[in-house]
Design brief:
Low-confidence stretches of chain A: 94-127
Number of domains of chain A: 5
Structural class of chain B: mainly alpha
Oligomer: heterodimer
Number of domains of chain B: 1
Mean pLDDT of chain A: 84
Low-confidence stretches of chain B: 93-120
Largest interface: A-B, 62 and 48 residues
Largest sheet of chain B: none
Strand content of chain B: under 5%
Structural class of chain A: alpha+beta
CATH architecture of the largest domain in chain A: Beta Barrel
Strand content of chain A: 15-25%
Mean pLDDT of chain B: 78
Helix content of chain A: 25-40%
Distance between the termini of chain B: 54 Å
Number of strands of chain A: 21
Shape of chain A: elongated
Chain lengths: 585, 120
Amino acid sequence: MQARFARLTRLATEDYLIRYANKGLYNRAQKDMEKGTSAEYAFGENEVVCTLSDGTVCTLTDSIERFDCSCPSEKICKHVLVAILYYGQHKLGGEGGGGGPSTTESKDPDRPESETANGGEESSLPAERALDRMPEDSGPKPGFGWLLERPIEELVVPFRHSRVEEAAFRLRYAEELEIREDSLLVVRMVRSGVEVAFTDAPDVSRALCAVPGAEGEMYRLEALLRYRAHRGKEDREALAGNQPSARIPAEILHEFRESVNALLSSGLARLPRSFAVRFELLAVAARSGGLPNLEREARGIHGELELFFARHVRFSSQALRGRLSRTALMLDALEKEIGPLRHAQLAGRFRSRFYTVPKLDLYALGAEPWETRSSYRGITYYFYCAEDDGIYTYTQARATYYEGAEFSFARHYGERSPWKPDLTLKTASASLLSLRAVKVSADGRLSSGGSPSLTLPLRPPVEAFDFGSLLAERFADLDLGRSQVRLFGGQPKRLRLIRAAAMESCVYDQSAQALQLTAVDIDGERLQLSLPYHADWKSAITRLEAGRGMPGAGEFRIFASVEEDAVYPISFLQGSEQISLKLDL
Amino acid sequence: MNEWERLLGRIDDWTEELLLRGSAQFAMEDARKLEQLADLASRLGMDLLERLLRRTANAGERSLLGPGDGAEELAGAFFRLCGYTELARRGGSGKGGSVDEPEAEPAEDEEAWESQSSTR
């Protein structure tokens, strides 16, 4: 035990002890020793009894995590620290006071092994690494190879799946890492301001982190994933396959298949009403089985069947056929071995899963009101994030198919935003939002919940901001006619910010029931934009037709949705001016 | 409307009608019709579509011989055919928008979701 204990005292640098305890305890232990406290050691087979000169008795082992002390403290106490430090300073042979660092050591910014850009740190570090000072016979050096050698599925076992998912999500956002390897492997995430210290015990849950609770768990995971990624490990596929939904209960799939086949066999004309309920129950089963896409299709089938039985004009045989065939094909695929990543893609994601992002700067691009076939009405606000070259949205929506339900676009547009009480959504839709600790879903939807903080820096004019891949400098860059064809998961929206030189004409097309605008780009090419008629924005259409609401002379930008059949403009931007076509006119 | 779109339209009509009638009512007439459409597809050089159509016809004929797993095979072939035409419609000139309305679902609270979910 003596040799093992000696090893512990060598590893117990100031950094190490502060992480296991705290700075206050460490300082008090140092003060005690300066005042002359000493200790006597009695070594047993598996423990060492340390008797301090003030009468306290602690029993220590070769691990700082296992100890006992006669004082009332339940957690690590200053007596344990004194016992370790005193041994290191006075009892280690052949090195004098080299075991535990004293407070008189000077900082040395030259650190050969550490991977960090800046030399200055707030917490004082030992000038030499404890590892470099250990004599050859002092036992095994701490090894952190386990962080990279063990498979990721094994390392995340102690954690809840939702934590792992959140940590994996955060890897989308850039982070600067500072890594120091000594008796602990410390990973500092600069932008979050959080440090995680891994011990040589191959257990991520035992890593040290000052952040408590669930958040601390998430940071441990994030540090682990970032460290591995930094060292070239690709974990995404393995993590995707690790989801609970990868273990799909066979009974659910069987039931689904039975129901779909029975529906087809019987035919709609002779279908008993109970089938509608059957699919509603299947939807619930799919949800608890972790199969969001299947749940959505089942709910859709349930809805279409209800419409069919009610002889409702909105019933669409095509829609029902689509849902049934997608479900059948999805079931086929889920039963096969297609790899964990594709399995996860097929199973889908619950839309309601939100993750906290530390920092998000969003350039607002406009807002668009909409109404669906199934009588949902809402407004979607669009934002661009330069850091990840991505579009984020915020949506207000309501079902309006039942008595008394209504959704006034104008009223909701003028409502307060969920992030700042004195900021209306209308104003937000033309601003630059700088959000801290905002909740975001995997598909870029902002949550109205959580408690993010928002500031409004001055928004640069649209010509002066870098919009990355969102911007199309000329119409030829738009890639019209080529669309991404997908059977599952809905069609992706292609949003672009299009640079235009002028608006040539604006004519209402009766047969298409839409306002057709023709824009010209800097090459002289023409592009037709289409604004379909809707009672709620007919005044906007009238104004545009009369030439009002058009951008001033010179270049401007069109924020639009580029779809297979037409380009649908959402807003015009010029300098610091912005008009959301359906809402601002 | 070109030949390709006409063919897709006829397949659409047939699948819609069978869904209404029920695949248990599959008749020799249906097999004949499918074989005709398969010939058309072959003429247009659409090998995969031709195979899907003939497969559906064969599965349907087998189901006529007696109840049993013929029905499941017919269902499988039928839905593959529907899936094909849906993809073809989306990738083509038609406005094949998905009836999924992504924004229509009310956003749920994460906490509410976590309490509903029974798995760890």
